[in-house]
Design brief:
By secondary structure, this protein is mostly helical. The protein has 13 helices and two strands. The protein is elongated and about 55 Å long. It comes from Arachis hypogaea.
Length: 324
C-alpha cells in the first residue's frame, strides 16, 4: 500500500516516527468522586469518554489499545521470534524491489499545511486499499496535480471527475463516492481536518481497521495499533505467531491477527512490522506456493514447505544462508 507523495510508511527518510508511545491521563488523581457505587462508575465512564474525545484514544495503564473501555492482557511471545524477525530483515535488505511503501519522491512535507497533509494521507490511503502501489500512487498524483487532495476541493468536485482521475484503482466508483462523503464529513465535523482517533476514523465510509491505524500513524504520528493487512495476517499465521484468544487455532481475519499480535509484540515493532512483512510477503512468503527454498528462516517456520510445489528444492536457501 502506498500513500501521497512526500509522505511514507516504513523504511523511508521522510517518515520519522518520534511520538511518545505512552500517554498520561490529563485528569488529576484528586478528582472528587461520589461515594455511591453507581455514581462512581458513571463519573469514571464520563472521564474516559471525555479523555478519548478531547485528547484522542490513549493507552490505559500501559496496555495496548484494543477498543473503547477494553484492555488487552499481555501474552508470552512465540519462541525465536526475534531471530525470525532479524532473518526476515536481512533477507529484505537483499531485495531488489526495495521498500514496498516508498514514495515516488521526497518533496518537503513542511510546505503542506498540516490539515491538508492529514486529509491527503487519509484520501490516498483509502485509494490504496486492495490496489497495487504504483496504481494508487498514480491516482493520488493525478488528484494532486488537479488540486483535489483537500476536503474542500473534493467536496466541490464532480464525482465523475474523481472517478476518471482515480481509475483504475480497485473499486474506483465506490471510492470516488466514499471520498466525497468523507470530505463532506470532515468539513462539517472537523473543519476540513480528519478525526484524531481510531474510533472516529472507523465511522468514515470505506475506512476499516487497517486504514484507521495507518492513518493514525501517518496523519497524527500516533501509534494506536498495528497496521495488519493480508500479508501480515498470512505470514504471522504461517509462523505460528498468532492464534484466537484462548485457543491454538489460527486467526481468521486481519483484525483478529492485530489483536493477537499486540498481546506480545513489543511496541517499538508495531510500525516497522507492516512494511517489512508486506515486502517479505510479496517476494518470498507469497500467498500461493511460498518460496520456502529461498527463505533463510524456514527451519524456524512450522509451515515451511507445506504449501510449496517442490518441497525438496533447497539450493536457493543454502545460497542465501551463505550471504547472510
Amino acid at each position: 500500500m502506498s500513500v501521497i507523495s512526500c509522505f511514507s510508511f516504513g523504511r523511508t527518510k521522510i517518515f520519522n516516527f518520534t511520538a511518545s508511545t505512552t500517554s498520561r491521563s490529563p485528569f488529576s488523581s484528586k478528582t472528587s468522586i461520589p461515594t455511591s457505587s453507581t455514581a462512581k462508575k458513571t463519573v469514571q465512564r464520563s472521564v474516559k469518554i471525555e479523555q478519548r474525545t478531547k485528547f484522542g484514544i490513549t493507552d490505559i495503564d500501559g496496555y495496548p489499545y484494543k477498543g473503547a473501555n477494553e484492555l488487552v492482557q499481555r501474552s508470552e511471545p512465540p519462541p525465536h521470534w526475534e531471530k525470525v524477525l532479524e532473518g526476515i530483515r536481512k533477507m529484505m535488505s537483499f531485495s531488489k524491489d526495495g521498500p514496498v511503501d516508498s514514495m515516488e519522491s521526497e518533496e518537503a512535507a513542511d510546505t503542506v499545511p498540516p490539515k491538508e497533509r492529514r486529509f491527503a494521507v487519509l484520501a490516498s490511503t483509502v485509494l490504496s486499499s486492495q490496489t497495487k502501489g504504483h496504481v494508487s500512487q498514480g491516482a493520488t498524483k493525478r488528484l494532486r496535480l488537479n488540486g483535489l487532495l483537500t476536503a474542500d476541493t473534493i467536496n466541490k468536485a464532480d464525482e465523475e471527475t474523481i472517478r476518471k482521475l482515480i481509475y483504475p484503482v480497485g473499486f474506483y466508483k465506490r471510492k470516488a463516492s466514499n471520498l466525497k462523503k468523507i470530505a463532506d464529513i470532515c468539513l462539517m465535523k472537523y473543519d476540513g481536518d480528519i478525526p484524531n482517533s481510531v474510533e472516529e476514523l472507523l465511522l468514515l465510509p470505506g475506512v476499516g481497521p487497517k486504514i484507521a491505524y495507518l492513518v493514525m500513524i501517518l496523519g497524527w504520528n500516533n501509534v494506536q495499533g498495528i497496521c495488519v493487512d493480508t500479508h501480515v495476517h498470512r505470514i504471522c499465521n504461517r509462523l505460528g505467531w498468532v492464534s484466537r484468544a484462548g485457543t491454538k487455532q489460527k486467526t481468521s481475519t486481519p483484525e483478529e491477527t492485530r489483536k493477537a499480535l499486540q498481546r506480545w509484540l513489543p511496541r517499538e515493532e508495531w510500525v516497522p512490522i507492516n512494511p517489512l512483512m508486506v515486502d517479505f510477503g510479496r517476494t518470498i512468503c507469497t500467498p500461493l506456493r511460498p518460496h520456502c527454498g529461498k527463505c533463510c528462516i524456514s527451519s524456524l517456520c512450522p509451515s515451511a514447505f507445506t504449501e510449496t510445489s517442490k518441497p525438496s528444492s533447497k539450493s536457493n536457501k543454502s545460497e542465501l544462508k551463505k550471504r547472510l
